[in-house]
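Exercise 7b. Backbone tokens:
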């Protein structure tokens, strides 16, 4: 109604103004006087104008409200979809994460998703403007069917022709934008992720070129789509002016009265002024949707491909396994697209409190063996038993196992946060058990370092722990394991990148851990495994078990 009433009233109002100036009485003004006898006929024109302005103001307020509502709805929908995609991504199997390009997921969750939210907003704008345009056209046809029908046919024909002409180009550009966006992010990750090698190899120009090529092609396509979306507006405005002038000449030749002529032209001009922005918004929304179609579809394709969603979400961290044994029975594992297993019916048993070392040449499967032990990947054949229960028989078993173990690797993942955030990994700062935290740092022998810092536990460690030494990172990881109260701790080449003195000190710390904690240590150095109860030597797809003296011969 906010759009229709001003169009219906503008013609009679203009005619009333013209005729009153000629000393005539216009029925519209007489009608106003009859409605309210307190308004003199001479003042009814002012009153009518005021009513018209109020109606026009309400119409514009309605458009503002509609736009605001569409923006909020699209933002809400965007948050729901984005959170769903991120949650599904986090809960995918480990094997899925290590085999896909992370830049695709990152671009989907950042820039592509901004495009997707804008696309949802454009769709809602398209629907609301279609409804508005429909009622405006009906109103214009009611005022003057023949003239306004001609105008409507001209405008719709123009936009339809443009849409059919540019549709394929917009779609092609959207695919290129999506691909180049991924290439741009890949160039950023590659250049900054290996910045030390980039500097040492003087490769800045190579990565700069990769980024420039991706960014330039993407920006050109976005600019082309923007031109396609906006240029028709100026052409259609010229067409509307030409059409209005043509109608003016036609009406003048028919010797119509001045008031009637003004009423017809005023209604037509005002109606077009209302209709054209709505039609342009429809076209702009459609072209925007087509411009971002590839990114939009890519988001939902990613969601649909994230097929694995565990039956348990937010599994309580307090639920653990009272660890007694870890057993492998006839384990085989086939890498993707490989016909031969890396293991040949591997079988062994690890008991609570044992110190187990794992050694073997490169390519023998040490890391794969540990990932199977960790429960991150499922064996292709055979069973993994924890306390005589099949580990992969349920999601609950897996999450209880995850809660009961800790992993300390050569390349420790360090958050760009404080020391306390890195030790109490993934825990709300308000829920931290400080007594357990202090115990964990003392056992990991990093408490003295922490207390020597000005901000103690709230010391910032920098991106990737750049403010920490290699030994300090490892001790934070060990403290993380103690804070978690892990029953089994896996060390994956944890000391291999350290200097000899730091390595010896860290190994001493590892072997001093409580005897009720089971340690499983991977190393390429036999000397590191000297104090292990048993050593597993991976060789020729099988396993050879013995103590340090057995392998030191």
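Sequence design result:
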């Amino acid at each position: 109604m906010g759009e229709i009433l001003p169009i219906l009233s503008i013609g009679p109002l203009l005619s009333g103004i013209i005729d009153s100036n000629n000393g005539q009485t216009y029925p519209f003004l007489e009608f106003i006087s009859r409605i309210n006898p307190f308004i003199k006929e001479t003042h009814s024109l002012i009153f009518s104008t005021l009513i018209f302005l109020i109606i026009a103001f309400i119409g514009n307020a309605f458009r503002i409200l509609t736009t605001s509502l569409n923006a909020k709805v699209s933002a809400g929908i965007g948050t729901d979809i984005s959170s769903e995609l991120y949650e599904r991504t986090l809960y995918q199997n480990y094997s899925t994460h290590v085999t896909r390009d992370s830049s695709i997921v990152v671009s989907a969750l950042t820039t592509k998703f901004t495009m997707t939210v804008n696309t949802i907003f454009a769709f809602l704008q398209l629907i609301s403007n279609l409804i508005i345009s429909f009622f405006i056209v009906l109103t214009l046809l009611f005022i003057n069917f023949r003239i306004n029908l001609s105008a409507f046919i001209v405008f719709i024909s123009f936009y339809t022709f443009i849409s059919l002409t540019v549709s394929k180009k917009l779609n092609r550009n959207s695919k290129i934008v999506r691909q180049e966006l991924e290439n741009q992010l890949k160039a950023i990750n590659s250049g900054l992720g290996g910045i030390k090698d980039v500097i040492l190899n003087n490769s800045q120009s190579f990565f700069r070129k990769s980024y420039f090529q991706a960014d330039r092609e993407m920006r050109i396509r976005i600019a082309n789509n923007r031109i396609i979306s906006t240029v028709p507006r100026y052409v259609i405005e010229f067409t509307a002016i030409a059409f209005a002038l043509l109608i003016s000449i036609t009406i003048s030749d028919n010797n119509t009265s001045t008031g009637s002529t003004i009423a017809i032209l005023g209604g037509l001009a005002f109606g077009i002024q209302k209709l054209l922005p709505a039609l342009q918004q429809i076209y702009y929304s459609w072209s925007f949707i087509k411009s971002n179609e590839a990114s939009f579809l890519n988001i939902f394709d990613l969601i649909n491909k994230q097929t694995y969603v565990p039956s348990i979400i937010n599994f309580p961290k307090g639920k653990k396994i009272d660890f007694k044994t870890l057993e492998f029975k006839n384990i085989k594992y086939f890498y993707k697209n490989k016909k031969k297993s890396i293991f040949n019916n591997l079988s062994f048993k690890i008991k609570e409190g044992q110190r187990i070392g794992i050694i073997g040449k490169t390519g023998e499967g040490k890391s794969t063996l540990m990932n199977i032990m960790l429960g991150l990947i499922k064996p292709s054949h055979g069973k993994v038993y924890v306390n005589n229960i099949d580990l992969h028989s349920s999601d609950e078993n897996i999450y209880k196992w995850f809660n009961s173990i800790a992993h300390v690797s050569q390349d420790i993942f360090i958050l760009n946060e404080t020391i306390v955030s890195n030790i109490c990994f993934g825990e709300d700062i308000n829920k931290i058990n400080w007594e357990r935290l202090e115990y964990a740092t003392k056992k990991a022998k990093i408490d003295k370092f922490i207390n020597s810092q000005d901000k103690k536990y709230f010391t910032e460690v920098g991106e990737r722990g750049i403010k920490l030494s290699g030994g300090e990172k490892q001790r934070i990881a060990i403290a993380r394991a103690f804070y978690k109260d892990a029953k089994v701790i896996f060390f994956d080449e944890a000391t291999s990148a350290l200097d000899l003195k730091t390595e010896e000190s860290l190994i001493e710390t590892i072997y001093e851990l409580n005897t009720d904690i089971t340690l499983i240590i991977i190393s390429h150095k036999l000397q590191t495994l000297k104090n292990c109860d048993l050593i597993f030597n991976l060789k020729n797809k099988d396993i050879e078990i013995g103590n340090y003296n057995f392998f030191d011969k």
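Instructor comment: Residues 325-551 form a domain with the Rossmann fold fold (CATH 3.40.50.300). Residues 21-29 have pLDDT under 50 and may be disordered.
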